[in-house]
Amino acid sequence: MKQYLDLCQRIVDEGEWVENERTGKRCLTVIDANLEYDVENNQFPLITTRKSFWKAAIAELLGYLRGYDNAAQFREIGCNTWNANANENQAWLNNPARKGEDDMGRVYGVQGRAWMTPEGTTVDQLRKIVDNLSQGIDDRGEILTFYNPGEFHLGCLRPCMHTHTFSILGGKLYLTSYQRSCDVPLGLNFNQVQCFVLLALMAQITGLKPGKAYHKIVNAHIYEDQLELMRDVQLKREPFESPSFHINPEIKSFEDVETWVTIDDFSVEGYEHHPAIAYPFAV
Ligand SMILES: Nc1nc(=O)c2c([nH]1)NC[C@@H]1CN(c3ccc(C(=O)N[C@@H](CCC(=O)O)C(=O)O)cc3)CN21
Ligand SMILES: O=c1ccn([C@H]2C[C@H](O)[C@@H](COP(=O)(O)O)O2)c(=O)[nH]1
User: Fold this and answer.
1) Which terminus of the chain has fewer Cβ atoms in its 10 Å neighbourhood, N or C?
2) In this structure, which ligand is nearest to the CA of 88?
3) Considering 8, 27, 79, 160, which one is annotated as catalytic?
4) C-alpha 224 to ligand 2 mean position (Å)
5) What are phi and psi of 240, to 5 degrees?
6) What pLDDT is attached to residue 275?
7) Is the CB of 190 under 6 A from ligand 1?
8) Among 4, 7, 23, 34, CA closest to 283
9) Cβ-based neighbours of 56, under 8 Å, separated by 6 or more
């Protein structure tokens, strides 16, 4: 929690204003932030200075791991975060590649599970990683990347947390996640949970012990209409102790994740938090 608040304070103190053409809003911005999550010791990085809707963050991650490409699929598993980008973003609504209501196009999980090759076949990046890690193999290229510039025109948004690299060292599994653009009040609250849970879940289904997750962010920003709430409300609050996090031990394989797992297979114990803050969302 401290590293999150330190980043928020750093943006408030040292950030520079940048015009953002896509959203028409200005962002107070810093470059380069490095966060670390201790999954081995179950230090769950949940925001306590406001209420976090952490279940939606895990549902979003599940949708990515399953290769979802439609906001209705995300809604069905308890996540509303893609409704606006799928249905309210004018550039995407005008795009002939959009297949109708709720379509997100070839974003995130689609690239992770079905990257198109020039031959017309698809590559399932995640399946290969799970197979290797399950056999204790780290080929120094256990990389899940959603970042496919050749298909940006076929999706509603370029991926933000775009690459996850897994490593094995001393029998433990590590994760390094890269994020090009980060909405610190809204997105990061979710992205921290997702890095932590991705490592915890992958360790559980591959039979490895989890180590640390390293989260590397390039452009970290606060939108102009979020600044007052961050500076004068959230940053004035005292954080509570971190809660602990649990995954249903019955989740044993990647097939489990693909078929029956729901957000009810994840729980948080001892979550004390301040009241919710409704930050504006930029489409
Ligand atoms: N401007 C912007 N910021 C983002 O963080 C973001 C995007 N766009 N577009 C793609 C995804 C969607 N994400 C989102 C979208 C909405 C919330 C949100 O509204 N969160 C609320 C409540 C969530 C709920 O009730 O489930 C929050 O208070 O955290 C969070 C992340 C993250 N990403
Ligand atoms: O997981 C996510 C997804 C998105 N965001 C934020 C970061 C930016 O504020 C917007 C995306 O806008 P771009 O113009 O494509 O950079 O969404 C996030 O923080 N986390």
Assistant:
1) C
2) 1
3) 160
4) 15
5) -100, 170
6) 98
7) yes
8) 23
9) 78, 79, 80, 81, 190
Residue 235 DSSP label = G
Nearest ligand 1 atom to alpha carbon 276: 28
Which DSSP state fits 135?
Answer: T
Indicate the SS3 state at residue 225. Answer: helix
Q: Give me the amino acid identity at 147.
A: Y
29 lines ligand 2 (CB under 6 A): no
Q: Is 160 close to ligand 2, i.e. is its CB under 6 Å away?
A: yes
Cβ 142 vs Cβ 180: under 8 Å: no
**207 Cβ contact partners less than 8 Å away, ≥ 6 residues apart:** 134
* Chain segment 16-56, per-residue pLDDT in tens: 999 999 999 999 999 999 999 999 999 999 999 999 999 99
Q: What amino acid occupies position 153? A: H
Instruction: Please state the atom number of ligand 2 nearest to the C-alpha of residue 184.
Output: 19
Rounded CA-CA distance 117/115 in Å is: 7
Tell me, using a 6 A CB cutoff, whether residue 22 lines ligand 2. yes
Query: 160: which strand partners?
Result: none
Could you confirm whether 8 is annotated as catalytic? no
| Mean pLDDT to the nearest integer, 80-102 | 96
Overall pTM surpassing 0.95 (yes/no): yes
Averaged pLDDT of the chain: 97
Question: What CA–CA distances, in Å, run from 34 to 12, 25, 230?
Answer: 17, 25, 20
Note the pLDDT tens digit of each residue in 116-133.
Answer: 999 999 999 999 999 999
pLDDT tens figures, 209-238 = 999 999 999 999 999 999 999 999 999 999
**pLDDT of res. 65:** 98
What are the tokens at 38? Answer: 């201790």
Residue 188, token pair as written in the block: 């990061």
Ligand 1 touching residue 265 (CB < 6 A): no
